[in-house]
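Q: Sequence in, structure out?
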Amino acid sequence: MEAMYPQPPMHKCLFPKSTQFASFHLLSNPSRIRIPLSEKDNLPVLDIIATDGEPIQDALKFSDVASGLEMGTRFLEWGHLCPTAPDTLPLHPGVEDDVFIIKDKLPNFFLIGNQKEFGSKEWKGTKIISVPLFSATATAVVLTQNFDVRPLQFNLML
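A: Exactly. Output:
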């Protein structure tokens, strides 16, 4: 995987069968995803920012903040998804605009991947979700029809 941020999407040649479908989208890391909802839903658009969590982990090294959820709150407060770059996280050369600035309004959901455990909290209308590292916890996170988040624990039998 690319070491510099923002990480570009994987190339479509890696998914020859999947890319035939219009519903398959390759995304960068981090990504902002806006999904239009039907009129019956209570939100006109589902607005999600997702990151692999590396900027959160990097920022934790240089602060007294104890958790990824709390650091996620700070990122939203600061309006920036990678405040330690380029000092401690390398950036792609030649990127002129700061793509890490949270423009417009805050999202409905802020997903922070590769964390130690599942957790969620709400801050100013944004649900911040700590998504645990699946290989270590066998836990996925599910978004319900009511826009609640729940951990889904798998029992791996080897």
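The domain at 45-153 is CATH 3.60.21.50 (Purple Acid Phosphatase; chain A, domain 2).
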